[in-house]
Amino acid sequence: MKIIKGGVTAAKGFKASGIYAGIKKKRKDMALVYSIVPAVGAGVFTTNIVKAAPVKWDMNLLKQNKAIQAVVLNSGVANACTGELGDINNEKMAKAVAHVLSIPVSSVLTASTGVIGKQLPIEVIEAGSKKLVNELSDTKESGLLAAEAIMTTDTISKECAVTFFLGEKKVTVGGMSKGSGMIHPNMATMLGVVTTDVSISKEMLQAVVSSGVIDTFNMISVDRDTSTNDSLMVMANGLAENEIITEKNEAYYLFYAAFHYVTETLAKMMAGDGEGATKLLEVSVLNAATKEQAITLSKSIITSNLVKTAVFGNDANWGRILCAMGYAGVEFDPDKVDLFIESSLGKLQLVENGMATDYSEELATKILSHKEVTAIADMKLGTAFAKAWGCDLTYDYVKINADYRS
Amino acid sequence: MKIIKGGVTAAKGFKASGIYAGIKKKRKDMALVYSIVPAVGAGVFTTNIVKAAPVKWDMNLLKQNKAIQAVVLNSGVANACTGELGDINNEKMAKAVAHVLSIPVSSVLTASTGVIGKQLPIEVIEAGSKKLVNELSDTKESGLLAAEAIMTTDTISKECAVTFFLGEKKVTVGGMSKGSGMIHPNMATMLGVVTTDVSISKEMLQAVVSSGVIDTFNMISVDRDTSTNDSLMVMANGLAENEIITEKNEAYYLFYAAFHYVTETLAKMMAGDGEGATKLLEVSVLNAATKEQAITLSKSIITSNLVKTAVFGNDANWGRILCAMGYAGVEFDPDKVDLFIESSLGKLQLVENGMATDYSEELATKILSHKEVTAIADMKLGTAFAKAWGCDLTYDYVKINADYRS
């Protein structure tokens, strides 16, 4: 597997565009990702009962096994809690793109992100759709423009791409995502689009996507708030011309690894770019009794406001880590737990068998001062493990969210 | 029922003291509550698997049906994650008090709050215990000193007392509590002590306490972090000389109402004094299908960082309320929900049947600018309801917790 530059336009036959349509005040606000041939589609979506109009639209299309050829996305307005008019406007957005591209409306997935409760400015969207189609291109630059156009409070655009070989055939997987706040994906995620030229059956593609997010997008949290709009949409157009993947063979697992790398990278970029964050925090739970236990414990640590503020303050307040494990709702023996912290500035054991070691607070503070920090909990119960990613809780998180709408 | 001044010394036969022993740098750090006769004891404790030494001690004593005569409390050090030495030190604290008071060590409950992972400075504690006994008094002032001595990041001391009559006999219920951060009680709470002179059986007292916290202490949250030390301890010494309550008769419910008032008042004081808080936020879920649904929804709203920051910013960002309800994990119809905000500056309907009303943002901001704000969700599903209390998430919460140990 080789990591390459680029995002949604890296794979063969994919074009993208990102423009300013006029939904937001100044910044780019619409994006389009298009496959020159019909593609197999798959996706995972928010588990929130309150589902945005585009989420309902996409889940319905994918259930019907329609071929997918485009994803149109807007930022600024989430089109959630908008009633029937929201559904009508969402369909109008899909239709506008389908019309200009001369493809069936049932091949167009939609995604929206932004303020909840506002209606889409549908005339702006329709005019924007034409412009989006006009500007489609398969260059890296166009992929980047699309990634930029879906940003809200994000401070960096998020792209990733890799290539690998299936026999003689080079396969490419590329993706983009956005997400900075209201991030606590649960069987789904913020907005993400992954494109690939692999040839794969719909069933196998959905299997890769559904199991892939468990270790990646589902393991990040900025603020424990699962959004109404979380969507990860994947298109596989088959232009790599590999032998079509229809079972869990070697090719399946090679593709799985590539997909996993792209989504994990995007997930970590989102966690590290969490609203107001100064640091990416990785939590690694080792030697747990079960995978489920490892996941639950790592997510409980990564979501604790008290752990997050301590990390912001470079304070090795390990009691808060053990406390967050204790209320996670799973059984374990606190008197067995070892805790470590690690960054490129060093590694230190803070706790052995549930009690403080004689560690140096000075060294602990130094390790925590790096912008990527890992906390490791060794449960000494079994062999299962999990990793979760989050960020610190800072003054700027409060600032961004105290007046998000103004 | 009459609300009176005072706290743990309000009821007949209770004395208290609060002193500076030397555990913390400057502020008072030890408290004692004492009944002049053996009392019936009851309590609820943290559900966190990581339990502090005093929590294990108290749960064990109460299980053995021992008569209880004193509660000794310290702040500064939580005596959690301290291993066997922590248990030994905790017993030494109970013994020191029992010795000077000439009462059995099995009649002394203990409680600690402060930094996790540090050992109690046991010589300081033992010297402090003598001083505590020497300064015991039944005055209001002594009750206040005790309430002050258990404060950590609290900015105000928390006391409440009421009286009511059972036939000719006046019964008093008084209490104190502390708690400002790491507050998300779950079948238990922070540190709280309630004293009463009611005559009641142990079984009935525990019934009142266990069911009482469901609507009060268990309905507050500052940061979703359930502490290792949460404890509510209750002593009933019978000196009111009412006919002993041994069944759920009228006297039981009168006592329940008084106990409920005291604990709800203390709970709201804790939520409003949440770390860094500028506001008390009450969430009221009405006409839910079941009590459980109402509780789950109200707690999901009160714990959302995004709702809390919006409240700090006086921003009526109702989409975040509906979003937090949507990910709470219970079924409901979002298209039926009505949302209101209310304070002493007015009441306003923001949402009708899941969609925005044509409300005035200006008036909404004005209503939210008050220091006590209520959000109301009408589910239109049934008749169940619940109230939860929390606070806004502010710069000061981050500040307090980024360097709590330094």
Alpha plus pi helix count of chain A: 11
Instruction: Round the Cα radius of gyration of chain A to an integer and report it.
Output: 21 Å
H/E topology pattern of chain A? EEEHEHEHHEEEHEHEHHHEEEHEEH
What would CATH call the class of the largest domain in chain A? Alpha Beta
Q: Estimate the global geometry of chain A from the Cα principal axes.
A: globular
CATH topology of the largest domain in chain A: L-amino peptidase D-ALA esterase/amidase
Quaternary structure classification: homodimer
Low-confidence segments of chain A: none
In CATH, the architecture of the largest domain in chain A is 4-Layer Sandwich
* Chain-averaged pLDDT of chain A: 90
Q: Specify the biggest β-sheet of chain A.
A: 9 strands, mixed
- Give the CATH H-level superfamily of the largest domain in chain A: L-amino peptidase D-ALA esterase/amidase
Instruction: Report the β-strand fraction of chain A as a percent range.
Output: 25-35%
Distance from N terminus to C terminus of chain A (CA atoms, Å) equals 45 Å
How many strands appear in the DSSP assignment of chain A?
15
Binding site for substrate (chains A, B): 152, 178, 189, 275, 401, 406
Site (Involved in the stabilization of negative charge on the oxyanion by the formation of the oxyanion hole) (chains A, B): 113-114
Transmembrane segments (chains A, B): 31-50
Family (chains A, B): Belongs to the ArgJ family.
List keywords for this structure.
homodimer, 406 residues, alpha+beta, L-amino peptidase D-ALA esterase/amidase, Ubiquitin-like (UB roll), 2 domains, 9-stranded mixed β-sheet, 6-stranded mixed β-sheet, 11 helices, Arg_biosynth_ArgJ (chains A, B), membrane (chains A, B), acyltransferase (chains A, B), EC 2.3.1.35 (chains A, B)
